[in-house]
Specification:
GMP Synthetase, Chain A, domain 3; 3-stranded mixed beta sheet; globular
Length: 134
């Protein structure tokens, strides 16, 4: 996997993935785009949400929505690394069994989400879930 980050102006950069997708990264608060740390947090949420939906669909569950609410704590002093991340999965569907949702979240967090597997080596990670009927 390859990517490129190019300076635009000030503290604003454009990232381009090998597949051609572009994002704006901005070190200004607020800026023209999310900060690099915000992108890391969004990557964790996206990776785990993809897993949860995929696992539930493979087990023939009717999923109509999935959101991940992320809350992160950072160190006070530089480097301001994440010290804790909590992911709350809000899964919506038709008659979703709690056992299946719990299993999907656990499998994502413990086995499949590559972003979380990297982060858990340095960050306290926790998760929870809610099930909503469509």
């Amino acid at each position: 996997m390859k990517a490129k980050v190019s300076w635009l102006q000030g503290m604003c950069f454009e990232g381009e993935s090998e597949s051609g997708h572009k994002i704006v990264l901005d070190g200004t608060n607020p800026g023209q785009g999310a900060s690099p740390m915000e992108h890391v947090l969004l990557g964790a949420g996206g990776c785990s949400a993809i897993d949860v939906v995929s696992i539930l669909e493979k087990s023939r569950q009717t999923v109509t929505g999935c959101e991940v609410e992320l809350q992160a704590e950072r160190a006070e002093n530089p480097p301001r690394v994440f010290t804790a991340i909590h992911l709350n999965f809000v899964v919506t569907g038709e008659n979703l069994p709690e056992k299946q949702v719990a299993r999907a979240v656990d499998l994502s967090m413990q086995k499949y989400c590559s972003v979380m597997k990297m982060l858990e080596k340095a960050v306290k990670v926790s998760s929870s879930y809610e099930i909503r009927e469509r």
